């Protein structure tokens, strides 16, 4: 058994620029007799997704080499990041070995013969390792989508991940509180203000400050982080007299996101500074397109920022935001701003159908899910009910009630019960 059971899967991937092709001593995929066939079957599923970020996310979640899906092309493929030095790999987390294909490989199990019993055992292993319910829910959903495709194409007999999620405790009720921190409009404002205060060298201070502000401003539009990193300059356009972003969302679904004055100004300042410094951000002439897609948010040398880049940037901004974010700075992440967009919009009485379209939710139920974060003392009906009960007390009304109204039994000519005695009726 090799140390990393999926090292062999890198053999078919194109080597990164400046890197020698990977050498694999053990030409086997543990438990799989035809690894090339399985790899082709998996790539057929990945090829259904137009969004390169989606492909990478799914590959990572399943424990497959991201270089596979990069070879399919797209915004994050190696050819568009050719000269970018690669950062050191992150240390494996506690669930690293429990990604589905690694879990199968360590058991010499061909994933195509896995049963629902195997999937349940895998889920129990994730739970024992501390995986949160939402994490297990997402991992199972990804696995079910993959096996649904494999079943349709005849690669497997049935979908082993099509199991009863309710019994496994993986159905999230819309009444449950969201684990995402809820940012107020004041805290989002503090993030924007702090974005220009990060310390940088004098030569690039303006570039980095305007970029940080543009990142925060664009996230206030309710974008997913994968959508932001996947945006190109060509995706910024005018339609119907308004400036919009053409966003490539989950599942290859595209939508137009209207630019606010705040986002428009922040992005304009950043792009102007980027162009002034002579980066690769040169506008294309009308009626032409660039041979290579140019990222909307870029590194200093013009390459595409990664999700990790922007996550770390946001954490730095939050740490510099002072008292307004002191209690939550270490929990800030890009999705918190997307969450804030929905909750603030609903607080301002925006129609939920409009909010759903803004953020690209497939179902309005997903948008309603965010509404749970709005429940506060001010929005609960409990005080309204208490006030109505209090208002029904005759002693609180203006003027003294008539004796008949105060005591219905007297109006009927019946004696009132003694004080302290309950009326048996």
Structural account:
This protein is mainly alpha-helical. The protein has two domains: 7-152, no CATH class; 185-374, Orthogonal Bundle (hpI Integrase, Chain A), CATH 1.10.443.10. The chain has 17 helices and three strands. A hairpin with a 5-residue loop joins strand 2 (242-248) and strand 3.
Please tag this protein with its features.
2 domains; 4% strand; mainly alpha; 3-stranded antiparallel beta sheet; 425 residues; disordered N terminus; hpI Integrase, Chain A
Largest sheet: 3 strands, antiparallel
Estimated radius of gyration: 28 Å
CATH superfamily of the largest domain: Intergrase catalytic core
Give the CATH class of the largest domain: Mainly Alpha
Q: Sketch the topology as an H/E string, one letter per element.
A: HHHHHHHHHEEEHHHHHHHH
Could you please say which CATH topology of the largest domain applies here?
A: hpI Integrase, Chain A
Overall spatial form: globular
Placed side by side, the strands forming the largest sheet appear as: 1-2-3
Our measurement of the CA-to-CA distance between the termini, rounded to an integer number of angstroms, reads: 80 Å
User: What count of structural domains?
Assistant: 2
Low-confidence stretches: 1-5, 7-27, 75-89, 280-289, 401-425
Helicity level, as a percent range? 40-55%
Number of helices: 17
The tally of strands reads: 3
Structural class comes to mainly alpha
Estimate the mean pLDDT confidence: 75
By CATH, the architecture of the largest domain is named: Orthogonal Bundle
């Amino acid at each position: 058994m090799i140390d990393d059971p999926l090292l062999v899967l890198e053999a078919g991937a194109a080597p990164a620029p400046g890197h020698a092709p990977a050498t694999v001593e053990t030409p086997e995929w543990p438990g799989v007799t035809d690894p090339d066939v399985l790899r082709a079957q998996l790539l057929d599923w990945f090829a259904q997704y137009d969004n390169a970020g989606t492909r990478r996310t799914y590959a990572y979640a399943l424990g497959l080499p991201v270089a596979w899906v990069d070879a399919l092309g797209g915004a994050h493929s190696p050819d568009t990041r050719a000269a970018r030095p690669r950062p050191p790999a992150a240390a494996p987390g506690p669930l690293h070995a429990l990604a589905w294909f690694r879990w199968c490989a360590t058991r010499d199990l061909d994933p195509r013969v896995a049963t629902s019993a195997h999937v349940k055992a895998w889920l129990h292993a994730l739970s024992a390792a501390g995986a949160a319910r939402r994490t297990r829910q997402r991992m199972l959903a990804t696995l079910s989508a993959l096996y649904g495709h494999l079943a349709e194409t005849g690669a497997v007999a049935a979908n082993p991940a099509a199991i009863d999620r309710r019994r496994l405790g993986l159905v999230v009720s819309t009444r449950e509180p969201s684990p995402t921190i809820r940012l107020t409009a004041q805290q989002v404002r503090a993030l924007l203000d702090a974005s220009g205060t990060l310390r940088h060298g004098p030569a690039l201070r303006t570039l980095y400050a305007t970029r940080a502000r543009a990142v925060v401003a664009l996230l206030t539009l309710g974008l997913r982080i994968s959508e932001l990193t996947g945006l190109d300059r060509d995706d910024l356009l005018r339609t119907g007299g308004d400036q919009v972003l053409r966003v490539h969302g989950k599942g290859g679904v595209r939508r137009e996101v209207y630019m606010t004055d705040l986002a428009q100004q922040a992005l304009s300042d950043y792009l102007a500074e980027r162009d002034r410094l002579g980066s690769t951000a040169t506008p294309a002439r009308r009626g032409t397109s660039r041979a290579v897609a140019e990222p909307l948010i870029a590194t200093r040398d013009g390459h595409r920022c990664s999700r990790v880049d922007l996550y770390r940037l946001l954490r730095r901004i939050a740490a510099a935001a002072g008292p307004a974010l002191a209690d939550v700075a270490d929990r800030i992440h890009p999705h918190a701003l997307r969450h804030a967009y929905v909750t603030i919009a609903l607080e301002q009485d925006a129609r939920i159908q409009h909010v759903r379209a803004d953020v690209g939710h497939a179902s309005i139920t997903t948008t309603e899910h965010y509404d749970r974060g709005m429940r506060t003392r001010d929005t609960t009906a409990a005080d309204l009910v208490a006030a109505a009960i209090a208002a029904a007390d005759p002693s609180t009304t203006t003027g003294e009630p008539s004796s008949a109204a105060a005591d219905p039994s007297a109006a009927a000519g019946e004696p009132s019960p003694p004080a302290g005695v309950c009326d048996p009726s």
